[in-house]
Design a protein that fits this description.
The protein has one domain: Alpha-Beta Barrel (TIM Barrel). 40% of the residues lie in helices and 15% in strands. The chain has ten helices and ten strands. The strands form two sheets. It has an eight-stranded parallel sheet with strand order 3-4-5-6-7-8-9-10. It is globular. The termini are far apart. The relative contact order is 0.14. Keywords: NADP, Oxidoreductase. Belongs to the aldo/keto reductase family.
């Protein structure tokens, strides 16, 4: 299967639009599943210190036999390590586990406004980028006002904002905010942890297009312009998820999916942390 297309980032780098998400992938399975994903055509692996599988992701990258430039690896600094010096230490620890010479994208995992350290964390990421240790830097679970503060206080804009995003929570205003500033919006929990897939509307669209409900939702993400990182635990589902580029939803399909919006989250609101 052909790899997902790459899309440009505002800093001149590019990122595969669809990647393999490793949240809740056990370390014992992570290297094997990453190699399954790479074999299927994935070129983007999304991990984090909190996921506990960075070491295995690095093993898969090395075992793949692919040139390093062909694989895009993301990791994230966990909220307990927010702060300038602690974020730098956390990055060093992640890189020791990954055992890679450089990282493609490093994100602040959560802003945690109650501790008020995310601006200092951002300054640490800017330093890591400027030192050439990471190619691109961004944020995760940031509302618009968190990003505005980063830019106001540092003059530096993230190139990616990874947030919970699915048909129940399409994040329309945030996507528009990000797009106006050259920020790519990336969807975690793109299938609402699988809970959205039994929706009769999605099942009807799946029948219309001869696809699975998951493929319908992933294609919806692609056509919105989102980056998207579905998790999967079987080779069949891994391959199926990547095949979101072989068909197209029409305007009526997109309008129908828009009616599913409820505002429901499967995770926390970033302001509640």
């Amino acid at each position: 299967m052909a790899p997902a297309p790459r899309v440009p980032l505002a800093d001149g780098a590019s990122i595969p639009q669809l990647g393999y998400g490793l949240y809740k992938v056990p370390a014992a399975d992570a290297a094997r599943l990453c190699l399954d994903a790479i074999g299927a055509g994935y070129r983007h692996l999304d991990t984090a210190a909190f996921y506990g599988n960075e070491r295995e992701v690095g093993e898969a990258v090395r075992a793949s036999g692919l040139p390093r430039d062909e694989l895009f690896v993301t990791s994230k600094v966990w909220k307990d390590d927010n702060g300038f010096d602690s974020a730098l230490r956390a990055f060093d620890a992640s890189m020791r586990r990954l055992a890679l010479e450089r990282l493609d994208l490093y994100l602040i995992h959560w802003p945690v406004p109650s501790t008020d350290r995310y601006v200092d964390t951002w300054r640490a990421l800017v330093r890591l980028r400027d030192e050439g240790r990471v190619r691109s830097i961004g944020v995760s679970n940031f509302h618009a006002h968190h990003i505005e503060r980063l830019v106001d206080e540092t003059g530096e804009t993230p190139v990616v904002n990874q947030v919970e995003l699915h048909p129940w929570l399409p994040q329309t205003a945030l996507r528009e905010f990000d797009a106006a500033r050259g920020i790519r919006t990336e969807a975690w929990s793109p299938l609402a942890r699988g809970r959205v897939l039994g929706t009769p509307l999605l099942e009807a669209l799946a029948a219309k297009h001869g696809r699975s409900s998951a493929q319908i939702v992933l294609r919806w993400h692609v056509q919105l312009g989102n980056l998207v990182i579905p998790k999967a635990s079987s080779p069949q589902r891994i391959r199926e998820n990547l095949d979101a580029f072989g068909f197209e939803l029409d305007a009526a399909d997109l309008a129908a999916i828009a009616t599913l919006e409820t505002g429901e989250r499967t995770g926390r609101d970033p302001d509640d942390d």
